[in-house]
Give the backbone structure.
Amino acid sequence: MTLVFLVLGVTIGLFVWGRISSDLVAIGSLLALFLLGLVDVREALAGFSNSTVILVGALFIVGEGLTRTGVTAWAGDQLISATRGSALRLLVVLMAGTAILSAFVSNTGTVATLMPAVVIAAWGVRSVPSAFLIPLAFAANAGGVLTLTGTPPNLVVAESLESHGYRPFEYFEYAYIGLPLLVTAIVYMVVIGQRLLPKRVGREAPKPLSGMLEELASSYQLEDGGWRLHVQAGSPLIDSTLREAGLAVRHGITVIRTGRLEGGESVPIPSSDYRVHEDDVLTVTASSEAVHRAEVELRLGVLPPDAAARSAAELISRELGVAEVVPTPRSRYLGEAIPADHIGDRFGVVLLGARRGGEPLGEDAVVQFGDSFLVKGTWEAIGRLEDEREDLLVVGRPEELASQVTSLSGRSAAAIAILAAMVVGMVSGVVPVSIAAMLAATAMIVTGCLDTRQAYSAVSWSTVMLIAGMLPMATALEASGGAERVADILVATLGGLGPVAVLAGVFFVTTTLSQVMSNTATAVLMSPIVLTAAEGLGVSPHPLMMTIAVAASTAFLTPIGTTTNLMVLGPGEYRFGDYAKVGAPLVAIFLALCTLLIPRIWSF
């Protein structure tokens, strides 16, 4: 028992210190327990096959599918547009909407999706981002208490109950206490919290996505893009491939989409081997002079412009995106003509434009170090381009722009249907919760909501490793009698005052730990202690276990308590003490409500 507490103390100390990543600390704790003979090999590795670990990983993929298909961005856009220029309405709608999203999508994913829109909306209501970003993070944390899958501590608590022979909490059972707490949090922010939030201006208002794309289009002189050219009978392009036609080199025309005059399948980013047919419709980017020359020389008819295609915002969509690339110092393309066809064949993208020193380059220019190119392709193709390191480097992270596209598609509907089916499966109990999540994650990939590469990238492996690494500590605490010892102290100290006093003590200890270490790790550590304490008191463990789930999500006092708090630290220009100033009263209110409501919802 002494050795277990020694390892636990070092583990908590390293969590608080923060210089070593939490997942590495958890794995180190696992190895220490094994090397000291406190757990055997099976117990040490049991966390990696635990259903909670599998469930958390699958939920990351489901959440990413919703993001990739524009569902979360669309929902966020609807929330922001509903504010109608009112700062107070923005605060209320933002917190309520964020909480609902975070009940089904990871807290981190929710904040990452909404934060850019919130920053822009804050300037739009003549306020500053610091007045809204802490409420955004707090609402995401509070919203996690609405459902079983809202946050990992809920899953840990439910799994602990089931593994000890008790009834686990149902999917929406958390909302019995989560909803009153959420309403209270919103009222608190409106009445008190907004007065405590700092109003700092550290940067200029950012440009919206449309403004960024318009600037990009202007830099590469794409304002004349979106021409639709009809291949008429007798055109010399008929039966030739796009490579053979040499439209880019000879005529200054880049084909970005092909279709048919009478309808049919439209092909975005056609390959250079695409063979042109009579009555094809080629959507191109080109200057008006180039189009008019081609109209005469190539017997092409100019169709009415597609307004959407001419818009700068059309540069990206759920399926297609753009990226700026630059050649490396030892690129094979240096000294060569601009490699439009070669890049297209190799990566499946088309070259929209090239620049040198702020000026556009013609198609016959020779590539020099420092040149930049704008390419367009599917997000999968751009991902392949990002993997290229020898010859070309992608500037920034263009795929993140996709999360800001608010238009919905057929895949968006599929993602929503998959989420609904997963929730129904979990609520009805037709399949185990972890299996329902795995089915949903698989369906997201099969239906094309995201590909396998994106799915693996979506999983927060640090969270998965953290849970898997900390579960053996819970086993060691129980096996060594450590959990029983701590539970006895808790019962001896507060048990004489009644189970409600013990509940308050559990809340206080849990929320204190969650301020400085992962809420998931906190739930893993507290679960065996609280289960033992409930048995010692001879009461139902459900009120105390629900208290763990709630208190683990009340990391409102520090920016390091949760990833969501940390994410808004920089954009909000916050200081460490701002969190405690705003969050301390809210934690106290949550404690009072939990001691009042939880025993009435789940009797001892």
Summary: Confidence is low (pLDDT under 50) at residues 307-313.
